[in-house]
Design brief:
Length: about 130
């Protein structure tokens, strides 16, 4: 049986689940090839873990399912899941250190979330209604 690795990544409200297995190097995000992702800036951001892995990622097929959040959050969650999966699949400490040196968010989730709206603030998190006592 061939090796199979499943990882996940989160960013804000977006959750990505990546499955890595031996293959020909195909990468699908929500059943679409990476080359069809627009705008190109987001496509390049998603390809960063693959470009940094270089030859290690050549024979690995990656399938990513992403739900929730906006486009940028989905891409960040997917790249986190891909990077974690590549490190787990290859068991390479060199790849792990490369990711950490390049961008720590490739392996460590960004835990920042939207601040909840407070009462008396008209839907904003921090701004309050101005009071005047005169």
């Amino acid at each position: 049986m061939s090796k199979l690795v499943q990882t996940s990544g989160k960013r804000k409200r977006a959750i990505a689940r990546a499955t890595l297995y031996a293959g020909k190097g195909h990468v699908l995000v929500n059943n679409k090839p990476v080359s069809s992702i627009q705008p190109s800036l987001l496509r390049l951001r998603l390809q960063e873990p693959l470009l940094l892995a270089d030859k290690l990622a050549d024979g690995i097929d990656i399938t990513v399912k992403v739900v929730g959040g906006g486009p940028t959050s989905q891409i960040d969650a997917a790249r986190l899941a891909i990077a974690r999966g590549l490190v787990a699949f290859t068991n390479s400490n060199a790849l792990k250190s490369t990711y950490l040196d390049y961008d720590r968010l490739l392996l460590v989730a960004d835990v920042r979330r939207k601040e909840n709206a407070k009462p008396n603030s008209h839907g904003q998190a921090r701004s309050k209604v101005q009071k005047s006592y005169r």
